Amino acid sequence: MRRKRFFGQGHLVQAFMESNDFWNRYGEDMQLVKRLGCNSFRFSFEWARIEPAPGQIDASAVQRYHAILDSMEAAGLLPNATLHHFTHPQWFEERGGWRNPDNIPVFTSYCSLIFREFGPRITHWATFNEPSCFALCGYIMGLWAPGKRGRLITAGHVLGNMLKAHVAAYRALKAMPHGHTAQIGIVHQHIRFIPHCNPLAGLIVRPVCRWMTYWFATRQMISFFQTGVFSWSAPLLGRVVHFEEPAAVGALDWWGINYYSRPAISSSFKLVGTGPSEPLTGMGMPLVAGDLHSHLMQAHRELKVPIFLSETGVSDSSHELRARCISSYYDEVLRAMADGADVRGTYYWTLMDNIEWHHGFNQHFGLYEWRPPGSGSGPGRPTNGDSLQLRQGSKALVALHAAWPETWQDVAAFARQRFAGPGAASVYSPAAYDVEQGLGAGDGSGQLPPVQVPGVPEQQQQLLRQELRAADAAGASQAGQQGGREVEEPLLGGRISDAV
């Protein structure tokens, strides 16, 4: 952050050191999560807090994480833990980071340490969050640490080493006490780019779209877990990384999909929507719901493991798109479940704004209103016992949490009922093929049934329904909830916090 001069927000240096202070105010945050109707919380362990130097374990950090888990349990929230969310200790980077395959046992040792301490308290684990984004943004685009640009071959080695590390950690944790009950997965951002330009410009834009989609690596990662083979190519160079890891087959208990958009690239190489129905979000990407169904179906067909929508949401400083995003994106989850996808839960990004990587504090994904102190554009964290306030549109998520049934099996039945009959999507729809081939986009629609929320006054229910109707009027379809679900257990309604 210092190298990038705090992303043009140097006046918020203190805020960059603390962000929204989850580390100290986790108890308050769990109550905010509970108010949303959630029953699960996705978070991450920060390796550098646990092991600030090789072999040196910070007992106070370990106890803090136990306290965080205590607060989740007190709020009725089941944890979903990530072991590596883009960050690792400086000493690990100085040893070569993920460029060095000799560091794979080091990561496995860290995972084993965490699992030995917290395994009895946590069922769902992810080894990595978006390893392909780590490789792309760190070694091709230069947006994240270590800030390298154009290292196409190195990026392939980095991603390959992270996938090998997943397999090594998976096998190690499964062999430990409580390993037989642990559900260990990995989280990947599903995204594809399409051209939106005239045919002549398409001669250049189309290959750019295909390479951008390729570097996000959905095909490579799915193939790795199907076959144990990893391949990585670069323009003009062809295949530059290739290896076999037979132990990868079967080393996956669940698959996490992070989905935000299906960007289109114009003749001037700008991110655009393909029409008025695809407004641009604060990230400059269009709001596109239809591709989510296709990505869910692709993962369901090819990986044959339970799926979590581990992140979705919208950066919306105008507060005009949040309800629409919730309505339309979660509708695609229901539509996929109606088509047979084994979706066990969803998580919304995020509870409140935080450091959105290279965007700093400039993006507003949060369901609750919070701005860093000193920004001059909103409140910091209250210190007088008051709670943060929900942003406009966020109540749509509360209503949908209340509307869905309690178990994921019942939600699947609810989805099949909603989408039965003419117009229901096919499991093998053209949109699903398009996602795999990097071509056009699918879309879907539906209407929300009346929401009846037990224990909530009718007047308040009417306000919630108005939020949902407003989303539909803006062009959204309906849907869903946030949270994960477990086999034969309550539907896990979750949200994601910062990496802590």
Explained architecture:
Mean pLDDT is 83; it is low at 1-7, 422-457, 471-490 and 494-500. This protein is an alpha/beta fold and 500 residues long. The chain has helices spanning 13-18, 22-35, 47-50, 59-74, 90-94, 104-118, 131-139, 152-174, 199-216, 218-227, 290-303, 322-338, 395-403, 408-419, 430-437, 458-473, and strands at 40-44, 78-84, 124-129, 183-189, 194-195, 229-234, 238-244, 254-258, 264-265, 271-272, 307-311, 343-348, 492-499. The strands form three sheets. An eight-stranded parallel barrel has the order 1-2-3-4-8-11-12-13, surrounded by six helices. Strands 5-9-10 form a three-stranded mixed beta sheet. Strands 6-7 form a two-stranded antiparallel ribbon. The protein starts with 12 loop residues before the first helix and ends with a strand. α2 runs parallel beside α4. The protein is built from 16 helices and 13 strands.
